[in-house]
Design a protein that fits this description.
Blueprint (H helix, E strand, L loop, with lengths): L1 E5 L8 H10 L4 E4 L15 H14 L2 E10 L5 H21 L3 E5 L18 H20 L3 E4 L10 H11 L4 E6 L12 H12 L3 E6 L20 H10 L5 E4 L4 H4 L1
Parallel strand pairs: 1-2, 1-8, 2-3, 3-4, 4-5, 5-6, 6-7, 7-8
Helix pairs in contact: 1-2, 2-3, 3-4, 5-6, 6-7
């Protein structure tokens, strides 16, 4: 496994300083977001020269950009918000090769208009599923045109709130450019912690062949609780890592939801 970290863990005035700090912690793989360098996470446009400079900085420090953050609410109640996200995704996808990555991470979204990370009862509705697949049907041709992988992350607050629904999405979209971001801390609805081993095993049974990267954080309770540093909560990390290892692939596993002080 390639152990890495989110660049946002180390706020610094320049990208060079961020990457120097990554390397100083013994890490060489990151998930990068444009908001880490003062831009919008999903810009309306990108200067190719900025992307070239970013790639040069990564190369100079010997850091691999395992993934680029491209989160927007894919089932936002407002169609205009969904469409704006698709347009901005196209900007990111068109510049991935310049940046030196081919993975963009997504948030499948929620009907909660105020926060992408909060649940809504309508997330389970047929209309929400229709909007997700309609948005994805626009996003995937952009990814395919630029040889980019879109990584969706099952998480309990979103429309893709389980391994089963993630499997359904993969099967319906039928695209080699759609893969999974696995985060073991995001899989447990209220009351499900006693079934942790069963739920983890089932998630890897359904999705293991389609995991492109993994996230590493922890949870202090079930539900919307996967937001503390890896190893400081309740997730069975021994089992989680065994399951990742059993995929047989050298997956990047990226730390987040931790402070700079915890990174060591």
């Amino acid at each position: 496994m390639q152990i890495g970290i989110f660049t946002r863990t180390f706020p610094r005035p320049t990208l060079s300083e961020i990457l120097e700090t990554v390397v100083a912690h013994g890490l060489s793989s990151v998930q990068f977001g444009f908001d880490d360098i003062g831009l919008a996470e999903m810009p309306d446009q990108l200067d190719p020269a900025i992307c070239d400079t970013i790639r040069q900085e990564f190369a100079a420090q010997g850091v691999h950009m395992a993934a680029l953050s491209g989160t927007w609410n894919m089932i936002h109640p407002d169609l205009a918000e969904r469409q704006a996200g698709v347009r901005r995704l196209g900007v990111l996808a068109a510049n991935c090769a310049r940046l030196g990555t081919n993975v963009i991470t997504l948030c499948t979204g929620t009907r909660n208009a105020s926060s992408m990370w909060r649940p809504h009862p309508d997330n389970q509705s047929a209309d929400a599923w229709h909007d997700l697949t309609a948005t994805m049907a626009q996003a995937l041709p952009l990814a395919e045109a630029h040889n980019v992988i879109l990584g969706v992350e099952p998480e309990v607050s979103n429309v893709i709130d389980s391994a089963e629904r993630a499997r359904r999405l993969l099967d319906e979209m039928k695209s080699p450019n759609l893969k999974i971001v696995m985060d073991g801390a995001n899989l447990f609805h209220h009351g499900e912690l006693p079934r942790m081993s069963e739920i983890l095993d089932r998630a890897f049974e359904l999705l293991g062949d389609d995991i492109i990267i993994a996230h590493a954080k922890d949870l202090v309770r079930d539900g919307e609780a996967g937001n503390v540093a890896a190893g400081t909560g309740l997730l069975d990390y021994e089992r989680y890592l065994q399951l990742l290892d059993a995929t047989g692939r050298d997956l990047p596993i990226l730390l987040h939801s931790l402070s700079e002080q915890q990174a060591k």
